[in-house]
C-alpha cells in the first residue's frame, strides 16, 4: 500500500528509504503519498500557491512578449527583434524550469513499485484498488503455513478519494462515505481469506488510522475529510485530539475476549513491540523504544497503559503531552 516515506537519499538508485531497507521482505505499493495530481481532475495539491505564483509570472512574460511583438509589427513603437527573441527565450526557459518539477508530478510521484522495480508510471488509479487487494490476498495464501507479518496501508479515505465505479453513490455521506464503504469491503475480503485459510484463531489483526479526519479537505461545499466526533480539530492541526486520537480495533478470536472496550490511550508505536512479543523476539536494547506491548492491556492482565507519558510532535515541535500518573 502507501509507504509515504519516499525512496532515495543521495542518488536515484540508493533506495535508502525503501521498505526493503527497513526490515520488510516484500513490497508492493506507492512509495510516496497520494496527491490530487495522481487523479488529474482536481486542483493541484503540491505547492499550489507556489505554482499559481509561477504561472502568474509566466503569463506576465507572455503578455510582455505579445505586447512587444504587436507593437513591432504595427510600428506602434520601435524595438529590436533581438530583445523580443531574448525575452521569449527567457520566458520559455523560466516556464520549463518550474513546470518540469510540478507539471509532471503525476509521472514522477504517482507510481507503483514491486520491491525495487517500478511496475506503473504513472499508476492507473482505476485498477489500483483491485491490484493491491490481489497482492495482499496472494501474500496471505503464499504464507499460510508459516508466520507472517502483512502490513496493508490503504490509499482509501485520503484525497482525492479514489473510488471504483462499483462503490460510487453507495453512501448517504457523499464521496467520502463511498470511499469508506469500499475500504470496509476490502478489509472484509482480507478477513474472509484469513478465515478461509483456517488462520482465524492464529492471526492477530490490528486496524487503525494514522490520523483523524481532515476538516480542511473540501470540493466546493462537499467535505472530503471525514468526521472526528466530539474531538476538536483534525489532521495537521497541532496536537488537538481530533487530529491524533483514532480508534484501534483488534481481532484475535479464541485469545482476546470479543466486545471488550478499552479506554486507555495507546500509540501506533506500540505495534512494533507487540509484534516482536508475538513472534517470540526481543525488543532491541541498543536504543530507546517508545512503544509498549499491547498484549497485557488487551488480555486484561493490567488495567492501565504502560505509557506514563505520551508526546505528540509536529516535526521537531512538541504540540501535545499527556501524563497518566502510575497507579493513579
UniProtKB/TrEMBL annotation:
Residues 1-280 form the Sulfatase N-terminal domain. One of its GO terms (molecular function) is arylsulfatase activity. Keywords: Membrane, Transmembrane, Transmembrane helix. InterPro entries: Alkaline_phosphatase_core_sf, Sulfatase, Sulfatase_N. It comes from the Eukaryota. Its cofactor is Ca(2+). The chain crosses the membrane at residues 54-71, 83-104. Belongs to the sulfatase family. This is Arylsulfatase D. The lineage of its organism: Eukaryota, Metazoa, Chordata, Craniata, Vertebrata.
Amino acid at each position: 500500500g502507501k509507504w509515504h516515506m519516499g525512496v532515495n537519499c543521495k542518488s536515484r538508485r540508493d533506495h535508502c528509504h525503501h521498505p526493503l531497507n527497513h526490515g520488510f521482505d516484500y513490497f508492493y505499493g506507492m512509495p510516496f503519498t497520494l496527491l490530487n495530481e495522481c487523479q488529474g481532475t482536481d486542483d493541484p495539491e503540491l505547492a499550489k500557491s507556489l505554482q499559481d505564483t509561477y504561472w502568474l509570472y509566466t503569463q506576465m512574460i507572455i503578455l510582455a512578449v505579445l505586447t512587444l511583438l504587436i507593437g513591432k509589427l504595427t510600428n506602434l513603437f520601435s524595438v529590436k527583434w533581438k530583445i523580443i527573441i531574448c525575452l521569449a527565450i527567457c520566458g520559455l526557459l523560466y516556464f520549463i524550469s518550474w513546470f518540469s518539477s510540478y507539471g509532471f508530478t503525476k509521472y514522477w510521484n504517482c507510481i507503483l513499485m514491486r520491491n525495487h522495480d517500478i511496475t506503473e508510471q504513472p499508476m492507473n488509479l482505476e485498477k489500483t484498488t483491485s491490484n493491491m487487494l490481489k497482492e495482499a490476498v496472494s501474500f496471505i495464501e503464499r504464507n499460510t503455513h508459516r508466520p507472517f507479518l502483512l502490513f496493508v496501508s490503504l490509499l482509501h479515505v485520503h484525497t482525492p478519494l479514489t473510488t471504483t465505479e462499483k462503490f460510487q453513490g453507495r453512501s448517504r455521506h457523499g464521496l467520502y462515505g463511498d470511499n469508506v464503504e469500499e475500504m470496509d469491503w476490502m478489509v472484509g475480503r482480507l478477513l474472509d481469506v484469513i478465515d478461509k485459510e483456517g488462520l482465524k484463531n492464529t492471526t492477530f489483526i490490528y486496524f487503525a488510522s494514522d490520523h483523524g479526519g481532515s476538516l480542511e479537505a473540501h470540493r466546493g461545499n462537499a467535505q472530503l475529510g471525514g468526521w472526528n466526533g466530539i474531538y476538536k480539530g483534525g489532521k495537521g492541526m497541532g496536537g488537538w485530539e481530533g487530529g491524533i486520537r483514532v480508534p484501534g480495533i483488534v481481532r484475535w478470536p479464541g485469545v482476546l475476549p470479543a466486545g471488550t472496550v478499552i479506554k486507555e490511550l495507546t500509540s501506533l508505536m506500540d505495534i512494533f513491540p507487540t509484534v516482536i512479543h508475538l513472534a517470540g523476539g526481543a525488543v532491541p536494547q541498543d536504543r530507546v523504544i517508545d512503544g509498549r506491548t499491547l498484549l497485557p492491556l488487551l488480555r486484561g492482565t493490567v488495567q492501565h497503559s504502560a505509557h506514563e507519558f505520551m508526546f505528540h510532535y509536529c516535526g521537531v515541535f512538541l504540540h501535545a503531552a499527556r501524563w497518566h500518573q502510575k497507579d493513579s
